[in-house]
Amino acid sequence: MNAKITIIGAGNVGATTAELIARDGLADVVLFDIHDGIAKGKALDITEACPLWNSSSRVIGTSSFEDTAESDIIVITAGFPRKPGMSRDDLLNANAVVIKSVMEGSVQYSPDSIIIVVTNPMDVMAYAALRVSGFSRERIIGMGGVLDSARFRTFIAQEAGVSVADVEALVLGGHGDQMVPLPRFTTIKGIPIPELLDLETIERLIERTRTGGAEIVGLLKTGSAFYAPAASSVQMVRSILFDEKRILPCSVFLQGEYGLNGVFAGVPVVLGIQGIEKIVELSLSHEEMSMFNRSAAAVKSMIASLNIS
Ligand code: APR
Q: By alpha-carbon position, which residue is closest to atom 32 of ligand 1?
């Protein structure tokens, strides 16, 4: 029997995630959305592409939670984009309502699932998912660091004129403007980038990484990035589904690690069949640690304005 993955939200990120999973035949996919027709239409379109991909994945679209029953992994991409006149807190609480409703359905129908949270502001939505579900922290994982690190890798490879395959990057902290790219732990073929690129160049690439999402919004005008966010989610799905135990930067609920408590932030973790199997604690320099603390404090202040009952 194939594994079963539910994608909540059949918008750009959700549908692209479903497409990537089906294209590689990783699992059966349930695409769930409040707009039944959108979920069903996109699922049918992907289904009709499966013969061309030689994929045996079964893909269905639905707006009924019963159809998601006994999912192994649930990827949450549902939410509202920020609209003109909406404050950050308005968006946060509007999306928290969405998270609450979809988590209640997920807990009821897939009590053993592992949850990947993509909806922004992701670290705060992951916190809401943890609170609403009562799941252990190993099973609620935020997608942010994989995407931010992929962007950093892209810019480094372009600047150095080398293959992205030879660039490893580590971006920690909250998935927002204050994320913490770590040049010391970012390498080209194992060589830390401070040995290969000058400081000014590194600073420029860090800044581009921090504003990577906004750069794409500025170009698209009517939406936000979805190819790289979907591909990042699928890398996490693979590591869990096939127990690959990849070390990936993911947002997790910290309980003393990195000196922090009660907040989600991106740190390197081992991802396997149990979800988060280990949190890797790096020894950060004073400067790195203070950037990390600032970033986590920004997440904490958003958690404080969260209104979930
Ligand atoms: N239940 C299920 N689906 C919902 C709900 C809900 N309560 N509320 C909204 N949705 C659906 C919408 O109908 C829409 O199809 O979520 C989908 C969101 O899709 P898009 O607007 O296309 O957004 P997308 O670009 O996919 O981004 C989704 O991921 O990267 C983040 O910042 C991004 O938070 C955003 C999320």
A: 120
Beta strands in the chain (DSSP E): 4-8, 28-32, 59-62, 73-76, 114-117, 140-142, 167-168, 171-172, 180-181, 187-188, 191-192, 246-255, 261-272, 275-279
* Same domain, residue pair 69 and 108: yes
Q: Is the CB of 266 under 6 A from ligand 1?
A: no
- Between the CA of 268 and the centroid of ligand 1 the distance, in Å, is 27
Nearest CA among 47, 45, 71 for reference residue 57: 47
Active-site hit among 175, 210, 238, 300: 175
One domain for residues 153 and 57:
no
- C-beta of 101 in contact with ligand 1 (< 6 A): yes
Q: How many angstroms does the Cα of residue 63 sit away from the middle of ligand 1?
A: 13
The tens digit of pLDDT for each residue in 1-22 reads: 799 999 999 999 999 999 999 9
Q: Give the residue numbers spanning the domain of 189.
A: 145-304
Distance, in Å, from the CA atom of 284 to the CA atom of 46, rounded to the nearest integer, reads 44
Residues 6+ apart with CB under 8 A from 288: 180, 182, 184
Is 173 in contact with 250 (CB distance < 8 Å)? no
Distance 8 CA to ligand 1 centre (A): 8
pLDDT per residue as tens digits for the range 167-188:
999 999 999 989 999 999 999 9
The CATH number that applies at residue 227 is 3.90.110.10
Q: What is the pTM of this model?
A: 0.98
- Tell me whether residue 35 is one of the annotated catalytic residues: no
